[in-house]
Amino acid sequence: xxxxxxxxxxxxxxxxxxxxxxxxxxxxxxxxxxxxxxxxxxxxxxxxxxxxxxxxxxxxxxxxxxxxxxxxxxxxxxxxxxxxxxxxxxxxxxxxxxxxxxxxxxxxxxxxxxxxxxxxxxxxxxxxxxxxxxxxxxxxxxxxxxxxxxxxxxxxxxxxxxxxxxxxxxxxxxxxxxxxxxxxxxxxxxxxxxxxxxxxxxxxxxxxxxxxxxxxxxxxxxxxxxxxxxxxxxxxxxxxxxxxxxxxxxxxxxxxxxxxxxxxxxxxxxxxxxxxxxxxxxxxxxxxxxxxxxxxxxxxxxxxxxxxxxxxxxxxxxxxxxxxxxxxxxxxxxxxxxxxxxxxxxxx
Length: 348
Known about the structure:
Layout: H1 5-19, H2 21-51, E1 57-61, H3 68-84, E2 88-92, H4 99-106, E3 114-119, H5 120-128, E4 140-155, H6 164-173, E5 179-182, H7 188-200, E6 205-208, H8 212-221, E7 226-230, H9 231-239, E8 244-248, E9 273-281, H10 286-300, H11 303-311, E10 315-316, H12 321-342
Parallel strand pairs: 1-2, 1-3, 5-6, 5-7
Antiparallel strand pairs: 3-9, 4-7, 4-8, 4-9, 4-10
Helix pairs in contact: 3-10, 5-12, 7-12
């Protein structure tokens, strides 16, 4: 093999330096200092997270006091306050479809001292409005998917259908005649019904109401044939026999109503659920997000929390931050298509 004199000379010179005791000592000092400097940022982050929280936490709610998100927020705030000995202030900021509260939360310092609870409504707003003062993906970091909320399809007892299959057959035999109601255009129940329409090819009329209560009243009264609603809203009417439950929108039967079939049992691939998700502003240090996630995971496993969520028609989930990111991305993709096919508009 040919040898390169220059390379050989370089290797000889380097060996000579290494062989000198003083040089070796200096090299060890330099390498040690370099490793210490490299480790300082890594050590600083966990210490910062360990000290968190250092002052009261604000939990922004995008809806009115007494709403589902507000109730969940107060359950979470009590848990965090007890665990960390720091006050957690629930701050309801309703209005403008949650845009006001979301903007406040998005612009807060990314230090874990401002949190926000978002539901399916936030994801719908993010795809329905052309211009928003925030971006749900860019300006927020999901902490945990806390719970899901399946919806329930209920029909007036006079409708000649006791199953989803019979309802679909009836709609096909009477194209354009069957009327279904919702709490408003672009609401989760509206979009879940539109998913059923597009997946089955049935022709049905949407009748939007200003809220679930009047829509349910007209379903009971027979002015509309059926509707999709949150579970708690329909329970008393179901028990009284004023509406008939035909199916639930989750992928599988819900523990909330185990005797009600999932719509997917008749329409494979059908699934539409709402959600409760906790966010921090984007760029919040991951150790802080992980600390929040661990505490809320523990809270979701308590009987008291699970019972309270069931009262709201929600099933506890608990996810990693990464799983929450994946879930949110999938929801936005699904909702963008549903909003498009439904024709829902932000001004309606």
